[in-house]
């Protein structure tokens, strides 16, 4: 084979490879787009339908683009559907639970990581054991407890059972244990007490884990369904997830309001997703290790 | 040696040391007590009470005394056709949702892993369903499946027919579909995080060795990702066994109890049939299932740790 022929051959192979690579990239985009449509179609249709009139929603073939968006469904969902109040309740409950879980987890995690006390191992095992008992196992007995305590239809019922988790304490303890001992010794030599060491060294160093815990508990608390359903009846205490249950049953002439309501209910987490994608990933993956 | 034999300054030091230790223990108990109180009241007490409740038959009318039934109630509930039906439904639900959800999540993660133009948009779309709670997802699909005006009813060609949610053959499939969709975001995020741990140079080496896309996936990605896949399977199954919201919002356990998963059956037993005893037995069964899955998970965790070190 002559030199020119060989060069030509190499050239042909190179061109073929390039063509193949381009075809592979195109195929990848096609697959990506098909999946994206599957994932996003229900969300897209919900947004579109929330901007149509009930008459337009019923029209066939269906309208897939709102030429004259009708925003009144949102104000109706907010006021008549009372979603403003429900969202506020969800935020109150979620904030209390997140703050409570972070505080109790830091406190317990600190004790398990840095303090000596009798029965430390036994109590730590008890903390871990709580992860083995899902809330779905005990919900109705806890409901009876809440009723007996006179907490039915109160914010106490919605929050107190979730102010501590074994998972949170475990996560923070692990983060504390990862702090190099020399740092602790240095703090001790400086005469720093527990409070100073915790606030100036331990907690700041454990911040990634604490943020992950906060994100994870935020999602859990905001999305709760079964528990608020069985411990509240009063509309003034209704969370947004339960509000959706009532919105679901509306008549067809209000169906655009139902769609608007679901958009409003999903919006807070969607904004959080866009703002804190990194933290979110860490929080959700940390949470997934939990049993 | 007794304390009397020691020089006075060492006695004092020892005493100071003991006092310091006592103070440290006191502080520790103070720090763990809030969590312990919550656990005692809302985890350990109800758990023990459920086991005990299972031994007593709930009276047919409130106000009558509970009757001790020993293990009779456990045996009776656990062998009842209703429980077996519910268990079958729950296992079917888990089998329909978990593998499909994971595979789709894995597929999306692999496709979105490479650096391509516009990939950030795809990533955001793929994770978008984490923003939808189970209630949001259920209400969206409930409305889209409305027998008169629902868009999905139209696309499925079922206009003028009863909703799929009222069809005994399709109700569970529909509920599973909604659940899979709602979990896609989480599944994608988990799998993407797992993929971050697959070194790029390994994939490049495989490519240079002539491995195609499928070969790289099958022989490099899957083995390296297997811990993530195992974990996601176990955790996903545990969560699927706890499904409730989608059932309550879409089918209320019907039609013909075809979607009466175990947690919904518990809810139904307590709040509709006033039968705490039955719910207690079901709760113990759910706990046993969760325990088995958790033990499998711990086993895998142990093995993974020993392999890595």
Account of the protein in words:
The complex is a heterodimer of chains A (291) and B (309). By secondary structure, chain A is an all-alpha fold. The mean pLDDT of chain A is 90. Chain A has 2 domains: 70 residues, no CATH class; 207 residues, Orthogonal Bundle (MetI-like fold), CATH 1.10.3720. The longest helix of chain A is centred in the N-terminal third of the chain and has 48 residues. Chain A is flat, with a radius of gyration of 27 Å. With 309 residues, chain B is mostly helical. Chain B folds into 2 domains: 51 residues; 228 residues, MetI-like fold (Orthogonal Bundle). In chain B, 73% of the residues lie in helices and 1% in strands. Chain B is built from 12 helices and 2 strands. Chain B has a two-stranded antiparallel ribbon with strand order 1-2. In chain B, helix 2 crosses helix 12 and helix 8 crosses helix 9. The C terminus of chain B is likely disordered. Chains A and B meet through helix 1, helix 2, helix 4, helix 5 and helix 6 of A and helix 1, helix 3, helix 4, helix 5 and helix 7 of B.
């Amino acid at each position: 084979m002559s030199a020119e022929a060989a060069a030509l051959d190499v050239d042909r192979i190179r061109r073929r490879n390039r063509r193949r690579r381009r075809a592979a990239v195109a195929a990848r985009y096609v697959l990506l787009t098909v999946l994206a449509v599957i994932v996003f179609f229900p969300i897209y249709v919900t947004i579109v339908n929330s901007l149509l009139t009930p008459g337009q929603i019923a029209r066939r073939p269906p309208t897939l683009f709102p030429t004259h968006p009708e925003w009144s469904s949102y104000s109706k969902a907010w006021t008549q559907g009372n979603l403003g109040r429900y969202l506020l309740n969800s935020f109150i409950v979620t904030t209390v639970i997140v703050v409570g879980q972070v505080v109790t987890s830091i406190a317990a995690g600190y004790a398990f990581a840095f303090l000596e006390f009798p029965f430390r191992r036994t109590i730590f095992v008890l903390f871990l054991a709580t992860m083995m008992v899902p809330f779905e196992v005990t919900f109705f007995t806890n409901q009876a407890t809440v009723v007996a305590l006179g907490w039915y239809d109160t914010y106490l019922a919605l929050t107190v059972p979730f102010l501590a988790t074994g998972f949170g304490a475990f996560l923070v303890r692990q983060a504390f244990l990862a702090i190099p001992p020399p740092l602790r010794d240095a703090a001790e030599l400086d005469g720093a007490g527990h409070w100073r060491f915790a606030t100036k060294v331990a907690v700041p160093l454990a911040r990634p884990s604490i943020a992950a815990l906060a994100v994870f508990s935020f999602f859990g608390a905001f999305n709760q369904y079964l528990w608020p359903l069985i411990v509240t009846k009063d509309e003034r205490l209704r969370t947004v997830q339960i509000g959706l249950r009532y919105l679901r049953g509306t008549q067809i002439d209000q169906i655009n309001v139902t769609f608007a309501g679901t958009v409003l209910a999903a919006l807070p987490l969607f904004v959080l997703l866009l703002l804190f994608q990194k933290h979110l990933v860490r929080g959700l993956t940390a949470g997934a290790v939990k049993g | 040696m007794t304390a009397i034999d020691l020089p006075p300054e060492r006695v004092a030091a020892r005493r100071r040391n003991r006092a310091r230790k006592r103070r440290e223990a006191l502080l520790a108990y103070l720090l763990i007590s809030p969590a312990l109180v919550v656990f005692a009241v809302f985890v350990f007490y109800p758990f023990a009470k459920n086991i005990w409740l299972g031994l007593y038959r709930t009276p047919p009318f409130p106000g009558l005394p509970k009757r001790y039934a020993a293990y009779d109630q456990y045996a009776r509930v656990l062998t009842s056709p209703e429980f077996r039906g519910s268990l079958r439904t729950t296992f079917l639900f888990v089998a329909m949702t978990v593998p499909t959800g994971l595979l789709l999540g894995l597929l999306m993660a692999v496709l979105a892993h490479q650096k391509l133009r516009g990939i950030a948009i795809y990533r955001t779309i793929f994770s978008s369903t984490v923003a939808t709670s189970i209630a949001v997802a259920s209400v969206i699909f409930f409305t889209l499946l409305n027998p008169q005006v629902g868009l999905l009813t139209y696309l499925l060609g079922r206009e003028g027919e009863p909703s799929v949610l009222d069809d005994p053959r399709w109700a569970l499939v529909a509920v599973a579909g909604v659940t899979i969709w709602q979990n896609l975001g989480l599944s994608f995020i988990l799998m993407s995080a797992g993929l971050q741990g697959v070194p790029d140079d390994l994939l490049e080496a495989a490519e240079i060795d002539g491995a195609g896309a499928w070969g790289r996936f099958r022989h490099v990605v899957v083995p390296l990702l297997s811990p993530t896949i195992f974990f996601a399977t176990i955790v996903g199954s545990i969560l699927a066994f706890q499904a409730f919201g989608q059932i309550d919002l879409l089918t209320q356990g019907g039609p013909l109890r075809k979607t009466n998963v175990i947690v919904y059956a518990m809810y139904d037993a307590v709040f509709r049939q006033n039968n705490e005893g039955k719910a207690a037995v079901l709760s113990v069964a759910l706990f046993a299932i969760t325990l088995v899955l958790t033990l499998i998970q711990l086993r895998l965790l142990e093995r993974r740790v020993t392999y890595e070190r």
